[in-house]
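Hi C.,

You asked whether I'd gotten around to modeling the 553-residue construct. I have! Everything is below, sequence then structure, no commentary in between.
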Amino acid sequence: KGDIDILSNIFRPSDVHLLSEDPNLNITFSQQTHYCYVAFNTRREPLNDKQFRKALAHLIPREEISSKLFEGIVATPMLYETSPAFGRWHNPNVATYPYNPTRARQILTSGGYGWDRDGRLIGPDGKPLRRLSFISPTQEEAPTSYEIAKITVEEMKKIGLDVYQEPVSFDSLLTRVLTERSFDIYFLCVSNLGKYPRWLYDYYHSSLDVPDGDNTPGVRDMELDRLLYTFRFESETEEEGERAVWRAQEIIADIAARIPVYSRYQIEAYRKGLEGMVEHRGVGYFTSGAFWTYLNLSRVGLPAGGKVRVDVGGRVRTLNPLYGSGAYEQKIITLIYDSLLASDPQTGELVPYLAEDWRLQNLMVGKSKFQKITFKLARNVTWHDGEPLTSADVRFSMEYLKRNRVPAFISSLERVINVSDPDPYTLEVTMNGTSFFNIIDVGGVIIIPKHIWGDVSDWRTFQPDREPHHKVKGLTKMVGTGPFILAEEKPGEFWRLRANPNYFKRLPGVKTPVEGVGLEQWPLNLKTVGLVATPIMLVFGYLILRRRVGRRI
């Protein structure tokens, strides 16, 4: 029906075949740092038993899933959580859990488990195990994830486990897993994992076993904590980091709290007549994390402006930039807010952004090592409401996020011990230690306006997109410095973004068009490095029948 122009996260083979036959569409295939996994709540019996978890890990039929659901063309079975895609950071010598029901029974037997006359699994104490719940997205919202959970549950039942599939809305799944920790087993996917496996710290360090922290299985291991801390915060060279993270991967695999199932290609479709898209290594062209595309996209024949509609991909829980950590939320949030530094879409190397320059200085105080990072801010940056961005805003952002221990930024700001703003365009950050990740950590922190967030006492419940701006008519408190401004929304249906006419990276002489969009998402143009030229309107939309592509694109 022509509802959208761009569709990401295409994973059903039937959709790939159908879209490939449309002469009006282009299809892209990109490798991505992505994986889907089954996770166990290690806080609960019997899942707190490592041997029990290892046995269940051998019951995931990856090959069947790949061939039955993906026809072998969309997804690749995966045994390693840190995959070979991470190059030198991948340890190939860790324990893996290929599908093997016989081995699962052997592990259970050696762990003291057994079976009653009816074939039901009983624990080492001779009592039947309690019934377990495997929560998954609903068939309507995520049919493939639903089927994977269904297949895995059936395998678990075959060895006598009393387990049932519990389909819930995606919102409920994230709330139960991330916030409440109210689950036994769940299935989810993650993507856009970056150049380094820094996410292992967030996923497995005990300090992130907090509400809305990423250590959802509740892993607590002192040696693993030490190794992950060394990797993230104390490694001065890549060689040191590699040694620590390889050993950490061995422990993670042995704990068996998250079991990788598969990694899939990022498959995307877009209408012919669009140009300027940028492939982001490990991400794709249009999905969450493909920031540069939306600074470069235009319609053929138009120097700037126009209209593009993009499927946001799924349900958006919140646009609170501190709380909305999901891929669907981030697809919108990252176009409204900026950070000090960005990364090259192909190499992952740091490039200037809000900070146009920076300098590292290693310090010694007694026997302790510190690092001072001095950022020089761009002088032409303004917030969406016209207020200038200064180093006071950046200092406020880091101190606010650290003081409130916002889970998404705990690890990034862990080693920050002081932030100062000696003048409006200079920021000094002093960090404990001289890790080579220091600059990546602080350079990637989201920057929020002090004049909006300064009086926000409860960051979790604040909904900036729902509150009108206190001074500027027609604007909400969703105020960033990014290339797009939230213009209109109907939560659950669409989020309309208009181009920021005062964006500091905008090429001179490009006028803002009047035409906008109404159902999905729109991009911008970068004609020279770091400059954007397409002042357009983006509209992100979510259609509940998003997989019936034959009727939507």
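If it helps when you're writing up: The two ends are 6 Å apart (CA to CA).

Thanks,
B.
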